[in-house]
Amino acid sequence: MEKFDSLLETSCRTMIKTILACLENATKGTIYRIGLMPDLTAVRITSGSRQPSSQEIEWGLPAASDYNPPGKNWEQYRDQPGRPLEAMGWCVEKQLSWTADNPQEDERSVRKQLRGEVEDHYHMEPVLVSKESLYGSAADGLCYPLDHFGNPIWQDTGYIVAAVIKIHFEPGSLKVGDSSIRAIRELSQSLGTELLSLYINDMLYRARKDFARQRLQSCEILAHELRNTMVKLGFVFTAINAQVAIIRESWEHLLQTHVSGLEWKGAILGTLSSELEQKRAFLKPGSDIFAISETLLAEQKELARISLSPYQEQDWVTNKIRPKWEKLLSANAVWDAPEIKSLLDRLSDSLRTGMEKTLVGKVNGFPPEILEEWSRLAYININSSNLHQIDEVVRLVEYPSLPVAHKEQVLRVLKSLRTLVLIIPEVEEKATRILQSLRYGTWAEDIARIAPGVNAGVCGDYGIGLTD
Q1: Per-residue pLDDT for 460 more than 60?
Q2: Residue 214 lies inside a defined structural domain of this protein
Q3: Is 87 a member of any domain?
Q4: Would you say 31 and 218 are in contact if contact means Cβ atoms under 8 Å apart?
Q5: How far is CA 7 from CA 12, 202, 203, 462, in A?
């Protein structure tokens, strides 16, 4: 906007200097910009007065005027009963010039109508710009300003008024139809061309800024949706590890059958829950300690029921179960603290029972290599960094005599999830690169290289490839 205003003022100064240089009897020039429809706000852009002594031009807007920024809108200066007629209203509405060669008889001199003061000799020339050149095919849908009768103006003409030039003359030197007026009219066409160019450049500049803003907004929305999608796709790893948990349960069941004397979490958690339920009767119902005991009991039963990796179960014990027992033991002496602490230590140790390598040699009925794979894969946690181990898990479950519950279903689920999870990194990479291209701009062929399924036509349709 500032760039447009600066270029506009420069163009107006050039036009005023040209007119004053061509017309020796001209003393001052002013150019008013007429805004877009329907407001048609008239704003004085600049004024230049020739100094009699030096012939230099003094620039600026020193005089008080309703047309100094922010100017007057159409309803404030159009012809309307009950207020002075203005030459500006005539030039804009009629798209015709107004010449005050006889100030005493100037019926559109606002100064004379309001204060009885005679204005000097002047000529006002509207600068016309073609509707089609400015608006193109959108010219048919323009919202035209109305006169005071409510009738639209400019509908029957192919032009709009983009500016008004006002030139003041020495007394007695201006006549209607003389060469001075013809010169101003000719030069106004040059200004019209310049204004059209500025308008178009300004509209392109605004359109580019608007497009850049919309592109950035679209990019942020798309990135947000893609992030949500990728987060939701995280369920794939949860589903895969749920199948691994079935394999782990089968391995631990096998150990419980073949190896005696092993300590498992279920029995220890059962003892802890029994201790908790027996002594809760000594706690005051509704107290904070009683509430902690209720939560602890529920968490212990939940840990006994679910099958997590030993590392996750250890976090559960460390962050949920042990701190609550410490609060109970410090607040109430009904429990045998050494016994409870011993049970908690044994619970932590039991979580890794199935991971003992020496146990493989105590199991019969399976090839040693199968048992080693089984004991190893039963305790892995599949994530984006070890996707290759899905294939190892599938090969293990495919072993004919492996006693895994719901074996066929586990295989189907693992193979389906394997297909999905393997394409996630590729999708994430391509989505990231396309988002970067959309955000920062790139060429359509670059998008085609990033994502071969997206052709140049699609890129063009969505504006990918345009830069700021």
Answers
A1: no
A2: no
A3: yes
A4: no
A5: 9, 10, 14, 32
